[in-house]
Amino acid sequence: MKNKDLLQISKDFGSPVYVYDSEKIVAQYKRLTNAFKQVKKVKINYAVKALSNISILKLLTKCGSGLDTVSIQEVKLGLRTGIAPEKIIFTPNGVSIQEIEEAVKLGVQINIDNLSVLEKFGTIHPKVPVCIRINPHVMAGGNTNISVGHIDSKFGISIHQMPHLLRIVENTGMNINGIHMHTGSDILDVEVFLYASEILFEAAENFKNLEFIDFGSGFKVPYHENDIETNIEEFGKKLSKRFNEFCKKYGKELTLSFEPGKFLVSESGYFLVKVNSVKQTTSTVFAQVDSGFNHFIRPMFYGSKHEVINISHPTKHKRFYSVVGYICETDTFANNKRIAEISEGDILAFKNAGAYCFSMASNYNSRFRPAEVLWHNGEAKLIRKRETFEDLIANQVEIEL
From CA 216, how far away is CA 181, in angstroms rounded? Predict the structure, then answer.
């Protein structure tokens, strides 16, 4: 997308506003599938939690993607797109057995990561196909909050609990049709991923009726020019070779599955904000914008470094700014960053705003959540309205006091 397109969107739809480029999403999907073209059966399940707007889900399912869901609400969002239930995998953590039962009734693929839940489920539904999430005890990811495969993680069944797991499967007669892992997000080292994959292959040998092996995701995307990223082509070549070797040994052509979220949508997204004021203090120049971590929490929560561009005046002389929001506590998007000279009323664009931005937004400080716009075939299409005061109080119940 060009600056003039983004500026026109900010003018037409107001700010702050999220913008997604459909062409980039489709390109990322094709890039990932091409990286594994040497494998006969490949299935991509988009991680709905990254960006759950129904129009985005429809775009990806049109590409051929399945959906990876972590809540019954995400399952229902997925089904609303018209996708077949069997193309949705449900991978919750710490939910009630009632929620899992509801997913069973909806006909989606169940993925369980808890021994007690597995035993309970197997006793009730021995014939329902189940995938098992393994914790390989591999520390991987760009931040402790998104490293989920280590020994202290709440996710997955420990690889060291395999004897117990196998006893449950044998005693209940369960139908285990898949095995799964997810070690974390922002994984850069291909060899770490391949190491964890070997653990999953070894675990898979214990199950004779598998249909697929799910390697999770967590591929790192670039956040600025010349930033490092996962070499998906190298990874695809190496894992494809190993996967095909395993299938030959296993005696069956299995499906290789992934569940990317950030990889597919992060780079497609822009978050546009307007500069309310420029504030000079004794040590810092603040660009104060019409948003906060209630809309864009990743810099504060994960320490993520998003590129910031002054799209109103991109060619002006660069100066150092700290870009901050309007929330009444520390609320910093970028600290001491070189940006083209900023004036009041300028529009700033945060890049890599497609993943975990709107989906983690809130009404903190009683602020409205912004609109979402999809740039598709050269046109800006509104895919979520900006909230209003009526939306804010819609579910509140006023009582007489």
Answer: 6
328 among known catalytic residues: yes
- C-alpha span between 64 and 336 (Å, rounded): 43
For residue 1, pLDDT over 80 is answered with yes
Residues with Cβ within 8 Å of residue 262, at least 6 apart in sequence: 47, 50, 185, 186, 217, 219, 221, 354, 355, 356
How far apart CA 345 and CA 14 sit, in angstroms, is 12
Q: How many CA atoms lie within 13 A of 259 on its CB side?
A: 26
Q: Report the alpha-carbon distance of residue 108 to residue 88 in Å, rounded.
A: 5
pLDDT tens, residue by residue, 19-39 = 999 999 999 999 999 999 999
Residues whose CB falls within 8 Å of the CB of residue 251, separated by 6 or more in sequence, listed in order: none
Q: What element of type H or E holds 110?
A: strand 109-112
What are the Cα distances from residue 309, in Å, to 3, 91, 168, 342, 346? 9, 37, 55, 10, 10
Instruction: Give me the CATH topology for the region 22-265.
Output: TIM Barrel (3.20.20)
**3-state class (DSSP) for residue 42:** strand
Is residue 219 pLDDT above 60, yes or no? yes
DSSP state of 167: H
pLDDT at 226: 84
DSSP-derived secondary structure for 61-73: HHHT-EEEESSHH
Counting every residue written for the chain, the total comes to: 401
Catalytic position from the list 63, 247, 328, 357: 328
Report whether 51 contacts 20 (CB < 8 A). Answer: yes
Count of other CB atoms within 10 angstroms of residue 374: 22
CATH number of 266-386: 2.40.37.10
Burial environment of residue 91 by CB neighbours within 10 A (0 to 12, 13 to 18, 19 or more): buried
Locate CATH 2.40.37.10 in the chain: 266-386
